[in-house]
Design a protein that fits this description.
mainly alpha; transmembrane; about 110 residues; about 0% strand; single chain; about 70% helix; membrane
Length: about 110
């Protein structure tokens, strides 16, 4: 069962890092005088749900952060997805250490 959780975590982290990287490259590659880059915004849409519950303010009222400059806006809007990856990694590490410490005491005892 722990292999499944590790693979899910690695997939989750890879998706978040890939989408964030592509979004940042698309954002900073566009000239500021060209206006809003709609392609970068479409790439960023999956990052908002991956940051729930921390990204709820950006999902519920996306215009509340319009006054921020580019870098703080990116951190406030898409940082929650990275925070979730960090929290899930820590949780996975803690659970695996607990299981290694007491191999007989599992959270769920195998009955089959």
């Amino acid at each position: 069962m722990s292999r499944v959780w590790r693979r899910l975590f690695i997939t989750h982290a890879a998706v978040v890092v890939l989408l964030t990287t592509v979004f940042l490259v698309a954002t900073f590659a566009a000239a500021p005088e060209d206006g809003v880059d709609i392609g970068a915004a479409v790439l960023a849409l999956p990052l908002l749900p991956l940051g729930l519950p921390w990204s709820w303010p950006a999902l519920s009222d996306p215009y509340q952060f319009d006054g921020l400059s580019t870098l703080p806006w990116i951190v406030v809007t898409f940082g929650p997805a990275m925070l979730n990856v960090l929290l899930h990694g820590v949780a996975l590490m803690v659970v695996s250490r607990i299981r290694r410490r007491r191999p007989g005491d599992r959270l769920v005892s195998p009955s089959r």
